[in-house]
Amino acid sequence: MKNQLTKVSLFLLLFSNTCFSQYQYTQPKKLDDGWQTSDLKSKNIDSTRIYALFNQLHGEKHQVHSMLVFKNNELLVEEYFGDNAIDKPHDIRSVNKSIRAILLGIAIDKEIIKSVDDPISNYLKDLKPKKNLDPRKEQITIKDLITMSTGLECNDWDKNSKGQEDRVYKKSNWLQYTLDLPQVNDPGTVSNYCSMGTLILAKIIENASGMTLAEFAEKQLFKPLEITNIQWGHTSEKKIISAGKRLYMTSRDLGKIGQLILNNGIWDGRQVVSETWLNEMLSVKTTITGIPYGYLWWEIPIQTKEGSTISKTATGNGGQYIMVFPDSNIIAIFTGGAYNSPNDKLPFAIVKDIVLPAFDKK
Question: pLDDT, tens digit, for every residue of 42-78?
Fold first, then answer.
């Protein structure tokens, strides 16, 4: 990923030194959605690179679908590309995982689920392993699910893994198949990126709450955040269990998830999720391919000329990102269509070379 970011960064720097005149910035629309917007020009921000970036993106073929920048609780930059629009929900892919971590925290706050240290078997009712029986499976905890360290033979980034996401989608019973995977490591010892673990997490929330994941999310998260324009679906053509469905959300609503992080769990004066949980969720617990990882959230260092800064990040295949910068009170939102392509890393270069230099000092 580092080499890819370097190449893209150099590409953007070429454009940052070029003068353009066709791009016309407009202040994001003020809607009845809970967001305050402001004019970029009123913030005394050097917008030279921002104008150069959008001249490039609006004039060239690329796979970025939207880009939004929030600073100090205000939406300052909002751009959409192609047929993407302000009111069009987007497939957010694995950003779903990070939202499920917040839902888990709410369930724990409300004592619907006791602890991340509980064995997953406590909440799965009659769903139990039937193959590759191993006593270590009884030791798998919720914490192991959300740190990708169940020890099951599941690695989305290894096409030969039996639990690789696309292979599991071809099976008739995703949850049973996952529980029946071979146990190759002790729980809690090795972290490999495993999407199926978050489906089991969703099922646990459903069983504990007595609601579908969609119902629980609507009541406990989306209604308090004034999020109404969502869809639940999947790219699979099979009939999908409720725990397997994933979200389609607008970019502005993804920004609300980021703002919830910056506001220590508060939206519009209401404590939606506890600050205690967010601190626990975002603190580093392990690494996956060398990148620090908390509870389904990444901690990604970004190096600028001014120094290194940390982004608490939710990521999704294709270029879906919630990037939260607590030290500078900035949120950057991206959606994209660069599925299974290194081009989905372009937003990191945009943030590194354009967003942080322009906004971080203000």
Answer: 988 888 889 999 998 988 889 999 999 999 999 999 9
Residue 299 and residue 313 in contact, taking contact as beta carbons nearer than 8 Å: yes
List, in order, residues 6 or more apart from 269 with CB less than 8 Å away. Answer: none
2-88+250-359 and 95-214, same CATH topology: yes
Evaluate whether the domain defined by 2-88+250-359 bears CATH number 3.40.710.
yes
The residues, any chain, with a CB within 8 Å of residue 360's CB and separated by 6 or more, are 304, 306, 309, 325, 328, 330
Which residues share a beta bridge with 321? Answer: 315, 334
Alpha-carbon distance of 92 to 296, in angstroms, equals 14
Phi-psi region of 171 (alpha: psi -120 to 50; beta: other; left: phi over 0): beta
According to CATH, what is the number of the domain 95-214? 3.40.710.10
Tens of pLDDT, residues 138-183: 999 999 999 999 999 999 999 999 999 999 999 999 999 999 999 9
